[in-house]
Amino acid sequence: MPNLASRARERHVLFVLSVEEQIELEIRARDELEKLRKEATTEEVDPQAVAVDVAIGRLSRLDSMQMEEVRKDASRRRNHRIHELQEALRKMDEGSYGLCAGCGEWIAFARLEQRPEAALCGGCAR
Ligand SMILES: [Zn+2]
User: How far is the CA of 74 from the centre of ligand 1 (A)?
Assistant: First the structure.
């Protein structure tokens, strides 16, 4: 059972993404990753997060807890995306980028353009 990387090499001539498209997607993935990492580091010293604690007298305890949950949720989603983007960049190095992890077929450029970290094709993601 060949792994995805060797399948990618075998099928390289059939690669549906042009070199320009691959470069475009790598740039997008790197930009996105950098943006998310920046967000993650600025959030650690986010003055708004501090302001929530300061303003606690004006907010009910429940409100502040809900805000904390929303913040945590956004941070979880961001960390998940960072992980997915790192994974996509690793696959680009390896040469298996653009292959669906579900069916092994190529993922359409239009989909990767929207979500460079997509690991599944449109069909498998449904
Ligand atoms: Zn698929």
Answer: 28
- The pTM (predicted TM-score) of the whole model is 0.71
CA of 95 from ligand 1 middle (Å) equals 17
Angle formed by the axes of helices 19-44 and 61-94, to 10°?
150
Alpha helices in the chain (DSSP H): 4-10, 19-44, 47-54, 61-94, 109-114, 122-125
Helix (H, G, I), strand (E, B) or coil at 53: helix
- Report domain extents, the chain: 4-125
Q: If you measure from the C-alpha of residue 7 to the centroid of ligand 1, how many angstroms do you get, rounded to a whole number?
A: 14
Cβ contacts of 17 within 8 Å, gap of 6 or more? 25, 98, 106, 109, 112
- Gap from CA of 94 to ligand 1 centroid (Å): 19
Which CATH architecture describes the domain 4-125?
A: Up-down Bundle (1.20)
What is the per-residue pLDDT across 58-78, written as a single tens digit (0 to 9) for each? 667 778 888 889 989 999 999
